[in-house]
Amino acid sequence: MAKGGGAREGGALKTAVIVAGGLALAWVTMETAFRPFLDRLRGAVSRNTDPARDPDQEEAPAAAEAEEEKTPAPPAPAVVEEKVEEKVAELEEKAEEAAAAADKAE
Fold first, then answer.
1. Where do the TM regions start and end (predicted)?
2. C-alpha to C-alpha distance for 83 and 11, rounded to whole angstroms
């Protein structure tokens, strides 16, 4: 009988290890599969449980300001035209200087 009892204990230990490994694998699989949803959920929970956060404070203007910072306003057309004219004038001067230097070299 002692041999049978020992075999059962070894079988129980093996079963416990397999179950624990299966649970760990299932947990890792769920974390990986639902990562975007879980990250969003954890962020919402941490915002709601943050003691420094004022729940009466509006969050919409802060989000609008963040979007404005990401997308700068395009420059005015007049400013762009002035810059283009300046660059064209610079290039024309350089072309004239290069032509004059080529004439002197000949």
1. 12-30
2. 82
